[in-house]
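Posting for a labmate who doesn't have an account.
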Amino acid sequence: MALMFPRLARNFIRNGYFPTDEPTLERALSALAPSPGSMSILDPCAGEGVAIAEAAHALGREQVQAFAVEYDAERARHARQLVDRCIHGDLMDTLISRQSFGLLWLNPPYGDLSKDVNGNIGYQGQGRARLEKLFYQRALPLLQYSGVLVFIVPSYVLDADLVGWLTRHFADLRIYRAVETQFKQVVIFGRRVRQRDQASESAKVMRGLLLQIGQGDAEADELPLEWPFLPYTVPASPAEPEHFYRVTMEPEQFADEVGRLQGLWPALDTHLGAAQQSLRPPARALSHWHLALALAAGAISGVVKSRTGRVLVVKGDTHKEKTLQTEYTERDDGSVAETRILTDKFVPVIRAWDLTLGSPTWGEVLTIR
């Protein structure tokens, strides 16, 4: 199976997209084993869907439901050809049932979070705000207990924050260096458990190792060609996720709905009441004051022709002005207090374009205040 479309290969780092190289993918999959029963697996940053599709084949395609989320439209279209269900959208804009997946394949976008959006997307952490940590926090609740995590991130992301989460949430943690070293990636395996005691000896040892690798004081071993330990068994899922959809509509879906419904115009009478076919005259003739007020409010506009033959195109408007009134008061001690009072005043203005042939103001815009 090709790792990428050829036309995308030259741009594969665009938008934080770092696909898993094929040797790393093959060796990581050798660490997984299926369990009897139906399994649901998820890649929330799926790219073109190759990694999660290969995982489904490695576990037994007939008994695996593969789910994916991908932000890029073109990659999402390709992923939909390989997986059972794929959401085109941002993981932060999805509603997915918690604890529904036996395998979480997480190769998130790499990079720092923008400071202006940091507090608006639910990120919680004390250390450096990174995309990898945000996606970990969002995706972790989707993995069922005893489920398997495959976490692929740059080694330098492993700070005290992230290492603390990993050692608290997972048992049987193992870390290896990816075969492709260009992006300094490590592959972390773990089995999700309920809140783990970080004071245990094994947790302390693993925490120290992860921190050393994150700080560059130690280097992880390369992923072995053949998995030398008992494999991580992906547990069966009790049922398919009840919720797996995007909160907002996809742009293509929205465009289809607009095309199908043709907006509100076909049902305008139903939604907004019966359309008035003709304008009804007022109950009585408007006075000059009513006419001026209606003109100034913009309720009356258009071409007006007087009895003398003068033709004007009129448009009314109203704007607010402030009038200043100053009052002086002498205090008991002889000093003078100055009080300034600003009063709002609404001024009607009517502008008229003179179209009267032969008029000395023909073509000019007149202002009537």
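Reply:
Got it, the structure tokens are right above this. The chain has eleven helices and 15 strands.
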